[in-house]
């Protein structure tokens, strides 16, 4: 999914530079099938858009889906507003582009997600091409300028190790050596296009809570899978959801790092014993 997504973005490297503000445009309703921008806060968009797309059904709608994987990672709270201001610009009396400062904020948070999958920030989204703050443009919201600073956040990392049928001591040592330990069902589905989709299914249960927050942990692990697609592809098998024990730490910069994964099968008595012993275990 990530490769297809990024190649599609890289293919629009030139239209933004070629877009003529003086050309004739028209306003159309944002179609229901354009789900990426359907709930962006306005109902009509201008064509051609800022990426040079003029055919709604043939270009705009299918190309808008190329951005969905990036938006699903939650890399920045205004990523949707930024991208939709280019894909589906609001239909007003004047052109409203994103401000350079908004581009920089989104790029600084979302470019590492692309880099994690081996791809650069698209040239079409070079922030120097957008207007400065003093011009009429879409600016970043102040309340999002330092979003979620106190919450652990997923980040790109080297893939954690995975061990089948571990010894009880191995599991207990992993609990001791890391900030947190949880159990979670990870599911890898096959989409119609043949692309895998990863999700955390059901509740996440704490063995060692550490700095994690109960209401945020399932979403945190879900974002980790979406950002670290290569790791997810290597670690999570297709088919039925598999229960895992996951251990990890929260780094000084607030990023979450998974370090050990243990698939928990019914026959793995050592994991069951380790989780029971942990309540009375001293590291």
In terms of topology, how is this protein built?
Blueprint: H1 2-10, H2 15-18, E1 26-29, E2 44-47, H3 56-64, H4 68-72, H5 79-87, E3 97-98, H6 100-116, E4 137-138, E5 153-154, E6 161-162, H7 168-177, E7 180-190, E8 196-208, H8 217-227, H9 229-235, E9 242-250, E10 255-263, H10 269-278
Parallel strand pairs: 3-4, 5-10, 6-10
Antiparallel strand pairs: 1-2, 7-8, 7-9, 9-10
Q: What is the gist of this entry?
A:
With 283 residues, this protein is an alpha/beta fold. Helix content is 32%, strand content 20%. Residues 1-18 form the signal peptide.
What's the story with the biggest beta sheet? 6 strands, mixed
Number of helical elements: 10
- The residue ranges in which pLDDT falls below 50 over 5 or more consecutive positions are 1-18
Judged by helices, strands and strand pairing, the structural class is alpha/beta
Mean pLDDT, nearest integer?
86
What is the alpha-carbon Rg in Å?
A: 22 Å
For the termini, the CA-CA separation is 42 Å
Query: What is the string of SSEs from the N terminus onward?
Result: HHEEHHHEHEEEHEEHHEEH
Cα shape? elongated
Strand content: 15-25%
Number of strands: 10
């Amino acid at each position: 999914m990530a490769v297809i997504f990024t190649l599609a973005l890289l293919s629009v490297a030139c239209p933004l530079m070629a877009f003529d503000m003086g050309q004739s445009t028209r306003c159309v309703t944002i179609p229901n099938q354009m789900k990426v921008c359907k709930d962006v806060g306005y109902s009509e968009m201008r064509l051609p858009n800022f990426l040079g797309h003029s055919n709604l059904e043939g270009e705009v709608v299918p190309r808008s889906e190329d951005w969905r994987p990036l938006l699903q990672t939650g890399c920045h709270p205004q990523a949707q507003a930024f991208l939709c201001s280019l894909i589906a610009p609001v239909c007003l009396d004047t052109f409203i582009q994103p401000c350079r400062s908004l581009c920089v904020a989104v790029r600084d948070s979302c470019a590492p997600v692309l880099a994690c999958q081996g791809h650069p920030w698209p040239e079409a989204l070079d922030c120097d091409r957008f207007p400065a703050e003093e011009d009429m443009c879409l600016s970043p919201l102040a309340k999002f300028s330092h979003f979620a600073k106190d919450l652990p956040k997923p980040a790109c990392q080297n893939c954690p190790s995975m061990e089948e049928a571990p010894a009880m001591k191995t599991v207990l040592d992993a609990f001791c050596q890391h900030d947190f330990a949880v159990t979670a069902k990870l599911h890898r589905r096959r989409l119609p296009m043949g692309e895998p989709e990863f999700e955390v299914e059901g509740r996440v249960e704490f063995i060692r809570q550490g700095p994690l927050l109960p209401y945020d942990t399932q979403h945190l692990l879900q974002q980790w899978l979406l950002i670290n697609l290569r790791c997810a592809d290597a670690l999570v098998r297709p088919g039925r959801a598999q229960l895992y024990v996951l251990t990890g730490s929260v780094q000084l910069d607030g990023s979450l790092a998974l370090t050990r994964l243990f698939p928990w099968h019914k026959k793995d008595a050592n994991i069951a014993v380790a989780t029971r012993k942990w309540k009375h275990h001293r590291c």
